[in-house]
Specification:
single chain; 146 residues; alpha+beta; Thiol Ester Dehydrase, Chain A; 4 helices
Length: 146
């Protein structure tokens, strides 16, 4: 059963399942996005850089977080649109082999007419050590019960 606007409770927290970031993810994302920055795709270059090895694209990790969110929520039939994102920060690098998951907290709700509303989340992407690698505020426009 899908969640409607009224079903989201302020301060409720949900946690996604986890997913390991692979070399294939990075290679495929570079090809898809055209972002071939050597920090992501060159082991020799990255070894001399600030992290000592290749890191995943921040946009890739963000994209994975949206997929993990969709897989862990019940909004297939009620989501109308991704309404926006604010305060996106990449706080730690994600390396090949890191396992990430998403924790979302409902921090706001705004009715947008009788049939819909915007739900605002504080979203954190954490690695296998519980360290936050990305934090952002995002909004979904979802159906309300009429």
């Amino acid at each position: 059963m899908s969640q409607y606007f009224e079903d989201f409770d302020l301060d409720s927290i949900s946690t996604s399942r986890s997913r390991t970031v692979t070399e294939a993810d990075i290679v495929n994302f570079a090809g898809l996005s055209g972002d071939f920055i050597e920090l992501h795709v060159s082991a020799a270059y990255a070894a001399k850089g600030p992290f000592g090895k290749r890191i995943a694209h921040g946009a890739l990790v963000f994209s994975i977080s949206t997929g993990l969110t969709v897989q862990s929520t019940k909004i297939d039939d009620t989501v109308i649109a991704f309404y926006g994102i604010d305060k996106l920060r990449f706080t730690r690098p994600v390396f090949i082999g890191d396992t990430i998951h998403v924790v979302k907290k409902v921090i706001g709700k705004e009715q947008k007419g009788a049939d819909r509303g915007v739900v605002t989340f504080e979203t954190k992407v954490l690695n296998q050590d519980g360290q936050t690698v990305i934090i952002y505020t995002d909004k979904l426009l979802v159906k309300a019960r009429t």
